[in-house]
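Case study 2.
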Amino acid sequence: MMTQYLEIKESQPGALLFYRMGDFYEMFFDDAIAAAEALDIALTKRGKHLGEDIAMCGVPVHAAEGYLLQLIRKGFRVAIAEQMEDPAEAKKRGSKTVVKREVVRLVTPGTLSEEALLDARRHNFLAAFAEVRDDGALAWIDMSTGGFWVTTCAPSRLAPELARLGPREVLMAEGAEGPYASLVAEAGAALTPVHKGTFDSTAGERRLCGLFNVTSLEGFGAFTRAEIAAMAALAEYLDLTQRGQMPLLRPPQRERAGAMMQIDAATRRSLELTHATGGGRAGSLLACIDRTVTAAGARLLERRLSAPSCDLATIHARQAGVAALVEAGGLRRDLRERLRAVHDIDRALSRLSLGRAGPRDLAAIRDSVAEAGRLAERLEGEELPEELAQAAGALTGMEELGELLDAALIAEPPLLARDGGFTARGFDEELDEARTLRDEGRGVIAGMQAEYAERSGVSALKIKHNNVLGYFIEVTATHEAKMRALPEVFIHRQTTASQVRFTTVELNELETRILNAGGRALELEKRIFTRLSEAVLAEAGPLGALARALAEIDLAAGLAELAAAEDWARPVLEDSRAFEITAGRHPVVAEALRREGKPFVANDCGLSEAAIWLLTGPNMAGKSTFLRQNALIAILAQIGAYVPAEAACIGLVSQIFSRVGASDDLARGRSTFMVEMVETAAILHQADDRALVILDEIGRGTATWDGLSIAWAVLEHLQAVNRCRGIFATHYHELAALAGRLDGVENAHVAVREWEGDVIFLHEVQEGAAESSYGVQVARLAGLPEAAVARARDVLKALEEGEREGGASAALIDDLPLFAAAPPAPVAKPVVRESEVEAALRDVLPDELSPREALELVYRLKGMV
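Prediction:
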């Protein structure tokens, strides 16, 4: 056995081997050590190899999915070796013959299909990046749904594309993955190097044509060689990991460059589009706006939120669908109620194509087809915009398949086909006959038990069954004599410590009939399951279209429900540089405040005439919230949703860049300031005149004058070179002067009020520059000790006075006595030494000076400087 194990293990480098041993998957040697630690299960040993104990651990087959999920999440790949024959058959070749085993599947992060291993509301993407000469391409699939996409992708665009997709696994050619390893890791994906030949575009084209049963790929689009190479790598990898059992894939869709809003990885993190800062979904924009009731609708929402459209016709069509359901509240509620009964058709189809489905997957398709028919009836006669009308048209046509499944399946079928019992009575005559014999046989057994009890005079006599003896009669040892008194009827079979077991000729004959009937019924049900699966897969195309139509309706109804419940407005989208938001709100912050019973202060934003706002004001006043809310409003508008505002008019936004907050990147040796500068450099190099840029505190990570200079230059560059729309938040009040010097730059500030030494945040954005940053007051609110706050006020006052009197701040700092962190005591007032000029002016009374005396005083003071 161990020889076989080592041979299979050698063929699966880099993967843990689940080696089937009866009811367990067992692991040995280093695999066992690694798995035991990762799964927190017992590590034991089994036999010896080369004189050393063999480490061993195992997991039950029936619970394997849970253990697989843990291993995949911890970065492992798992090869599953199954027994390919019955152990009883193997023994016929000799008592020491090893059961045949083969690897039937390689489980990797990007090739999951089991319901228990997947998040129903998220895609599970497997991606491949290919380079052919100077061209690059990225292809990706979701094996669990059959979705297949590809786009051109220069190496410089790989990081933002991976951030958009969030794939679980990325394929690259061996030897070419080095420069991209860190990018893949940052995207949270596993990097899998594969043989270079996997990316052969010529052979790959033939493979893809064979996969989709076409003579040319031209019917799907005009693909570049790099795109074909990336798609071919995915097809080859699926064939490798699924051992030839290819999943059901839809024809590839080519995404056109420029068709979607460009959002880089840093901006996605900053805006928390699909994941909050902590990494989870809660607190993200996606979690805030998701009102979908189906898994497919939720996945569609995430795709659109990750890649807002830049095509006006597409946006307007999606808006129209949402608007129609905002107005038709009754229809919207009816649709959402019916959609709750819809199952995940795409994933059920995928499992059927891979041979991993069960009767419940067939039932899910049956119920979804039936519900789709009821939805179509509800929509009949309604005046619908084009996109919803097309979706409604795809809801019908599956009635024949639905009737077949409805006739074939019971209402609540079991999970596994091998258990049987899922076929409805009356569907198959032969099955009904076998079931009748099986079930009546059980009734006959009960009658036979009563008859034998009466004949023997043993009322406690029982007829039982086990896998070794089959059916047998069992009595206690005290009644053995009564049974043996009738040897012509009861034949002795076995005596145990407390029971004696008998049989009869009649019982043996009945057992044969019952066992054959039960086995026959199960075999017939397996055939029925295969037949039904084939019937469903034959309609995979229309069923896929039906699933997409249901997702479209669900998404439109969900966005309409959001707009109606939150009182959001339909934005005006146009081909211009307009950006006018009236009473805009940050959707996530507003929701959080509402839960606390607090109001959100809405604010206007107008970047049409003045394309850049220079925003000043204290920390905690709401500058960052204001920056982000306007970016989020643009994103929501371009996915076709309503927006959290009273009104909005937005010219198409081609790119969104956000540099709000930063942190160290210690793994790559970057300080906070370096990270800030790298992100800012990317913005200045890439932003075009249709971009929306939000920047916060540029230059604050270095010396004051360095930072001010950088912020000054960045603002000028955005205005003169990039010519984009943007909001530039800063504490450098010196920048306020630029509003009067640069066309299209205006000052704005977040208003506050001072009251008895404290600062009150009004969260209102108003015209003009802020008077102060109120940093000391904010520090007091944060809980700094009162002594430290008082000291800060004194130092600030001295520095401001020094600045007004000639900028001698350094000398003033030298003169300030050091603060002693002693127990609370009165803080020493700063002592400033009297200068020569101050001494000369101490006794001068200006009102008593004649013009000549005043002039002489000026000359004398001039000589002191």
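Residues 505-538 form the longest helix (34 residues).
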